[in-house]
Amino acid sequence: xxxxxxxxxxxxxxxxxxxxxxxxxxxxxxxxxxxxxxxxxxxxxxxxxxxxxxxxxxxxxxxxxxxxxxxxxxxxxxxxxxxxxxxxxxxxxxxxxxxxxxxxxxxxxxxxxxxxxxxxxxxxxxxxxx
Length: 130
Prior knowledge:
Blueprint: H1 2-12, H2 27-35, H3 38-42, E1 45-53, E2 56-61, H4 62-75, E3 79-89, E4 92-101, E5 104-114, E6 119-128
Parallel strand pairs: 1-6
Antiparallel strand pairs: 1-2, 3-4, 4-5, 5-6
């Protein structure tokens, strides 16, 4: 019985929180990204954000990143998200998901850093799965 309880707790510790990702990214941000609402996503950008999108990549200010991501998301709707993995190291969390754009699978990587009051997106990468 004790082994079952320990295994249950271990398995549940990897489960996604009903409010979004288990560790940091709020559900509001995740839903906004899937819905193409970059103004809400931008609230979670760090002052400097590394973006890597199929349309190009670079390091941008949060305002520039909002524009670049907005342009991408107006042309490319993310759908059928599947959260694959999430790892936390200290105050950083790497979140990995599979999303579809025009019925092709893409990998979505989001690196966040926990600040004093909220999480901030440091890196966001979307790349076609091969």
